[in-house]
Amino acid sequence: MSVAAPILARALALLDKQDLVLSLHDPSFPAAAGQDPGRGSPHSRGGREFLRFAAALGFTGVQFGPQGQSSAGNPSPYDGTIFARNLLSIDLHALTHDPQWLGILPADTYTRVLAEARTGPRVHHRHVHGAYTAALAEAHDGLLTRRAALAAGTLEPATAAATTALLDRLDRFAHHHRAWLERDALFAALAHTHGEDWRAWPTELQHPTFPAPELAAAHQLSIDRYTFQQFIAHTQHEDLRRFTREVGLKLYGDLQIGVSQQDLWSYRALFLAGYRMGAPPSRTNPDGQPWGYPVLDPGQFHDTDQSPGPVLEFMSLRVGKLLAEFDGLRIDHPHGLVCPWVYRADDPDQLHAVQTGARLFSAPNLPDHPALAQYAIARPEQLSPDPRTPRHADDWVRTLDDAQIDAYSTIFDTIVTAAHTHGRARSDILCEVLSTQPYPLQRVMQRHGLGRFRVTQKADLANPSDVYRSENAAPADWIMVGNHDTPTIWQLVDRWQQSGALQAQAQYLAARLAPAESDIATLAASLAADPHRLAQAKFADIFASPARHVLIFFADLLGEKESYNVPGTVDDLNWSLRIPSDYPQQYAARRRTRSALDLPAILAMALRRRDQPETPERPAVLAALDALAKTQ
Predict the structure, then answer these.
(1) Are 232 and 259 in contact (CB under 8 A)?
(2) Is residue 543 a contact partner of residue 15, using CB atoms and an 8 Å limit?
(3) How far is it, in rounded angstroms, from Cα 198 to Cα 16?
(4) How far apart are CA 51 and CA 239, in angstroms?
(5) 3-state SS string for 70-87
């Protein structure tokens, strides 16, 4: 624990903040000197050093993005697999140097991967994918060599014992995860032969019946290779969890709403034919987004006796695996589990389709979606009587009775029940509700006492009731300046200065943070004159809010001005931003110029605001924060 940690913890407690969580995705992690394969990983030495750095800054947890396997042509973590882990996050250095892996990856192979790596501020995804695919195939060959030597009795006793132990652990892993592993391994084997797009495979392979023992037997070597590689990835994650517990960080996983092509092939029978899921027109994306994701079939939620059907069993397996591997989870686009926006798959103009879509359980009488009437939970008289109300509007459904809320909450109840079963608290579930919160979703979240996201950089300063204003947050909410889909605050303050919007931001923040009414004008002038100081005040504002849970994206922490992802665009730059290896020096230099997050100074600003309750401890904590702000 750092010297600053107890002081920061006391400050967070005075501000009634339960969680301070850092958000980043696996590829963004920095690498240790001499160990950079061109992509980050939390399992590497560089990844662990950064996590230790985050803990020393005062963070209590880390929110990872989805960690599923991505295809060579699509780096988006939200299109990755939902069970299988991403092999690109495996620490190759460990396979060569860590005794537990018996040196199964040859040293010259690891050296070649490093020599050919395309390092820099961005990940070159396709290159890394190819390099890892080849290296991990060699690692499996190394295991086969060890297995053969063990069978032949040519290994030294100590090596033989270690090899036997490794193989036993592999067998236990394969047995424990067989419910999803057999399908995923078979897909990987077929993709190796026929390509990643299963829709172009021979017809008999597009619709397999599971289990498929004859098909599996024909590809046993590939299946064994896949199984071993997943074993490595899962073992390294278990090692990481032990490390993060030691340094005092909770780990949060990501329950993405998307489904990979691999999972669609494996579980195709569970999805509704003829419809896809997307995002309706919204304040953030006025055109909507045709994601193309499949939609879980409501007809398979329950069996005829109302016991959990195939869909709920699938969700229990999925959520249970996540909760076994993480301390909490983020639910990506929860409306997709409660009242998904769906559109016709047969419309050749997918943008038109998503703009004229409907909510799956809230379309009892739409003439352009007659197939959805059978799934309606809301009745016609419960919809908005105003014909001008868009069907994607939050108030499209206006009233619901308790039984209807039960029905809307079917999948959500499965998640919450699984969380309780795994010993997780209600606050360990993060719901990524942004500008859109349809009435059914609002009622389901109220049912479980869950909060929403508040992204304060999007706040409408002219609207006192805007959902993104910090003062409108509730204690159960998660509040943040930005996330992986927004510009960094350091980009924004420059834009606000250029557009003339800085003055309005300064006035708003001064009214929120000034120690006294008489200080508002002076503070507003100070913030308007210094964009970097205004950015710090923007952070202080989230700590001054009623929300008990704070989320900070890594680019905002470190003072980055590059975007991580631009929603609705396909670009090689998306999902590729990395933390530089010299981040401690860069961060320290930027803190001195107020161009990176300065947590002690920010917490002090939030504690000094005039409506902060006075306590006996507050003066001492403020003095300690001021001292830290000067010395760090």
Answers:
(1) no
(2) yes
(3) 51
(4) 14
(5) CECCECCHHHCCCCCECH
The answer, yes or no, to whether the previous bond of 211 is cis (omega within 30 of 0) is yes
Both structure tokens of 55:
């803990």
C-alpha dist (Å) from residue 470 to 179, 277, 432, 545: 44, 31, 16, 5
pLDDT tens digit string along 114-158? 999 999 999 999 999 999 999 999 999 999 999 999 999 999 999
Cβ–Cβ < 8 Å for 501, 563: no
Q: For residue 569, count CB atoms less than 10 angstroms from its CB and return exposed for 0-12, middle for 13-18, buried for 19 or more.
A: exposed
- Distance in angstroms (rounded) separating the CA atoms of residues 188 and 183: 9
113-125 burial, b for 16+ CB within 10 Å, e for fewer? bbeebeeeebbbb
Taking the C-alpha atoms of residue 377 and residue 301, their distance in angstroms, rounded to an integer, is: 14
The answer to whether the CB of 557 falls within 8 A of the CB of 539 is no
What is the signed CA dihedral for 557, 561, 565, 571, rounded to 10 degrees?
Answer: -150
Tokens of 424: 């997780």
Which candidate, 49, 60, 54, places its Cα nearest to that of 17? Answer: 60
Residue 9 backbone dihedrals phi, psi, to 5 degrees:
-65, -40
- Give the whole-angstrom CA distance, residue 218 versus residue 233: 25
Residue 305 vs residues 236, 368, 623: alpha-carbon distances, Å = 42, 32, 64
Cα 458 to Cα 361: distance, rounded to the nearest angstrom: 29
**Residue showing tokens 């300064």:** 506
Helix (H, G, I), strand (E, B) or coil at 346: coil
Residue 358 β-bridge partners = 342
How many angstroms separate the Cα of 306 from the Cα of each of 300, 302, 312, 375?
A: 10, 5, 11, 16
- Report yes or no: 561 and 491 within 8 Å, Cβ to Cβ: yes
Report how far apart, in Å, the C-alpha atoms of 89 and of each of 66, 67, 144, 357 are. 12, 8, 22, 37
- Give per-residue pLDDT as tens, 309-362: 999 999 999 999 999 999 999 999 999 999 999 999 999 999 999 999 999 999
pLDDT at residue 285, as a whole number? 84
Please give the single-letter amino acid code of residue 24.
Answer: L
Residue 198 CA to residue 217 CA, distance in Å, equals: 19
As a residue count, the chain comes to: 632
Q: DSSP letter at 596? A: S
User: Residue 276's beta-bridge partner residues?
Assistant: 343
Between strands 275-279 and 549-553, the pairing is unpaired
